[in-house]
Fold this sequence. Notes:
By secondary structure, chain A is of the alpha+beta class. In chain A, 16% of the residues lie in helices and 28% in strands. Chain A is globular, with a radius of gyration of 13 Å.
Amino acid sequence: xxxxxEIPTALRQFAGKQASVEFNxxxxxxxxxxxxGTYADLRKHLYTDDGRIRSFVNIYLNDEDIRYLxxxxxxxxxxxxxxxxxxxxxxxxx
Amino acid sequence: MLIINSEIAQSIRGYGARDYPNETxxxxxxxxxxxxxxxxxxFPLTNRRDDSPRNRFSITAxxxxxxERAAKEQGLALVGWYHSHPDHPARxxxxxxxxxxxxxxxxxxxxxxxxxxxMTSWQLSDDRSAFQPxxxxxxxxxxxxxx
Lengths: 94, 147
């Protein structure tokens, strides 16, 4: 199943400067694995050291946040689009 | 290098003062060219952190998408983010670092007792280890003649 993955502008420098890439993947998790396997430098910006998706990184399948689907086990179908969207957070307190 | 004109800088300071003692936040829209990155417009956003808005800010994924759409409509790029540090220096915290991505410019304005003070800009290193200061060039707003 060919799925399109949209790369946010801020991370394109770690993905060959591409705005989107296509992978054959049956689940969102598989597509992410292929993405970070192909572009290893992306991994640390998407995942924590213990392998969890960073809390501020949101993964959408088409227009749905995968947290409300089956998370990384969410199945994909041909022509789906996966987007990586950050929530921006910060603040003064250490 | 980040180019900000005095009108936009004044707006960021104004939002910081307006939202004091809470943190203000928003997106910076602009152009990213060979001669530097220039902020052309701001897209103020609501701080979604209801639990600790005095020392935290949060911009949801939906707000991020709205900022991206606004940039596209204006023929600009989403080049960074601004937020305030109420009664705290304009330096990024560890929390800021943990929740950042490289490439973006992160502008921080300190607001002391309601008065906006220093404004700084930072970029996360590619290995996520630290924020590096980004030089700000203060420009004259379009339509104004520099004397």
